[in-house]
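User: I'm putting together a teaching handout on how multi-component assemblies are represented. Below are the sequence lines for each component of a complex, exactly as they appear in our records. Could you produce the 3D structure of the whole assembly as structure tokens, so the students can see both representations side by side? Please keep the chain order the same as the input.
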Amino acid sequence: KAGVTQTPRYLIKTRGQQVTLSCSPISGHRSVSWYQQTPGQGLQFLFEYFSETQRNKGNFPGRFSGRQFSNSRSEMNVSTLELGDSALYLCASSFVRQGAYNEQFFGPGTRLTVL
Amino acid sequence: AQKITQTQPGMFVQEKEAVTLDCTYDTSDPSYGLFWYKQPSSGEMIFLIYQGSYDQQNATEGRYSLNFQKARKSANLVISASQLGDSAMYFCAMREGRGETSGSRLTFGEGTQLTVNP
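Assistant: Of course. Below is the structure of the complete assembly, with chains in the same order as your input.
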């Protein structure tokens, strides 16, 4: 079974631009979560989508948004990029079933650099 | 408030020896799950082991075991017979609530960089 895939793997943007990152979960997984990883703040939760609905949201400004499609693929968008948005963005998918621990499987990440 | 604390920024261990990575957590939710992930330099997070708050026994997965002390709110990872490939960053994470109803949100600790020496 194929793992979580993220595209692109690397991205360089300039301040003020916007960017869209894509995540394809493991087949059958309906939950997709996004995390931002930076040296200063560590791993921080952005949001989770489940069956095309945002189920949880972290403490990030409205410039960060996401969506999930009917095939469970997810995109996250960052508008008006700032230097501090430079980070590794990780996507994780989970099957979500009652009685199980529903571990999250992570993709390889998209490394975003904002100049 | 910090919910996951990993107090060891870096740890060193000799190949074939065992090592314990510390993790303490804080939650008022009686239902929660604790996870350990490994992150090599490539960046991908690799799931290692899980412990549920209601699990009576400590979790084990191959060379990994979790020393779960609920009263102390600690969930230490034990790696037996360390290998050179174990060198990586290790993260402890917690999910509050039951995943199927409360969502999959994980709160991570700051991580421990493990170096295995030959």
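A couple of points students might notice: Chain A has a mean pLDDT of 93. The interface with chain B takes residues 31, 33, 35, 42-45, 48, 50, 55-56, 58, 88, 90, 92, 94, 96-109, 111 of chain A (CB under 8 Å).
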